[in-house]
Amino acid sequence: MHTKTFKVMVISIVIMLTIKGTVAASGPFGLPQPVSRPTGGLHTGIGYWLEENKFKNNEEYIIRQQQIYSELGYGFQKNWDLYARVGLSKIKLFDAFSPTTKATTTSKNDFEDNLKFFSTLGVKGFYPVHPAFGIGAFIQGTYYFSDFTDNISGIQGSVPFTVELGLKNLWDVNVGIGFHATVPWGINLYIGPYFYYGEAKVSPSANIAGLALTSGETILRNNTVFGGFAGIDAPLSRGFRLQVEGKYADRLSGGAAVTYAY
After folding, report:
1. How far apart are CA 235 and CA 258, in angstroms?
2. In 3-state terms, what secondary structure has residue 92?
3. H-helix or E-strand spanning residue 14
4. H-helix or E-strand spanning residue 171
């Protein structure tokens, strides 16, 4: 494959990442093909992920997460891969405290909390159609062990108030297909669609008139169920590799990881 052709493939991935989609899920999916050595074995990685997606009940809310994580996996030759991640996430729920009436004022509009633990489990299967091309499928789920909380003060009518909002039991599950191509210099390109479901319980310490998310416990669910992803995996040195991946839905998400196969 000529350099010009390779550049066209890279540009195509970037274009697909900027096409309007539907929803972004938690964390990267990675290569459809296992990242272990050809004979199988352990692989590890560390990564950073910036995610934005939309959840809704009666209204839509943008959730932004900044995640750092470590990964441990085991590949069975080049056909199957099991992996687990543990990480910390910072979260921001935009307009969670925005007043819905003029009689209510608040000290801030956005919900924020820092560095809560989460874990991701996943399994992949891969079929090599050609030495330079293959198709894979995966299922991946994420659960947040800690509840996110934030406090706000304000005035409703002429009465001051303080309320704590909890974002609890945040989880998601993803199922997708990935198309994998190997190009010169040991670089892998991948792209594919996925289906996604996620939800979280919103629990206020008090009911405040004029604040939409403090009218009692409610469930936030992902806005839509279908999205797309694409990425590049490139060799570094001494067995290390760099993965850069993106998803585009109502919002753009992306990140990078460094992996090593033992």
Report:
1. 10
2. strand
3. helix 3-17
4. strand 159-183
